[in-house]
Amino acid sequence: MADLEKLVEQLGALSVLEAADLVKKLEEKWGVSAAAPVAMAAVAGGAQAAAAEAVEEKTEFDVVIKETGPKKIEVIKVIRQLISLSLTEAKALAETAGGKVLTAVGKEAAMDAKKKLEEAGAVIEVA
Predict the structure, then answer these.
(1) Alpha-carbon gap, residue 15 to 35, rounded angstroms
(2) How far is CA 86 from CA 13, 76, 113, in A?
(3) Would you list the domain boundaries of the chain?
(4) Distance of alpha carbon 119 from the chain centroid
(5) Of 10, 16, 23, 28, whose CB is crowded by the most CB atoms within 10 A?
């Protein structure tokens, strides 16, 4: 028989991504859905909250300019590569703190845009 206290402690230490992966594996193995209350009761208490967070994980992100940085021209070029804007529109967006470069995009696209803009010298937030 498994040491339940040790299992609860280990499950409580899982990150959200690890808990989501655990949920998927348990769903596949047991042929159930994590959305069902019975399946959630089978998971130890500490992992239950983590699994619930994993199910509600954000899927759409906004890429927001916090600061253009010293290389404004490079940032403008990257903005124009990412979205179809005129030079004037891209310049205005680059100069607007809190301006959204991309709205409601997937995590991979948001992180890629953030990386490109940061390489150009901008300070970016993904929200």
Answers:
(1) 19
(2) 48, 10, 18
(3) 4-55, 61-126
(4) 20
(5) 23
**pLDDT tens digits for range 54-80:** 556 778 889 999 998 899 999 999 989
pLDDT of residue 1: 59
CA distances from 16 to 48, 52, 123 (A): 11, 9, 26
Mean local confidence (pLDDT), 30-36 = 67
Assess if CATH 3.40.50.720 describes domain 61-126.
Answer: no
Please give the C-alpha separations between residue 120 and each of 69, 104, 113, 116, 117, in angstroms, as whole numbers. 8, 22, 11, 6, 5
> Cα(22)–Cα(5) distance, rounded to whole angstroms?
18
3-state secondary structure of 27: helix
What is the strand order of the sheet 99-105 is part of? 99-105, 61-67, 123-126
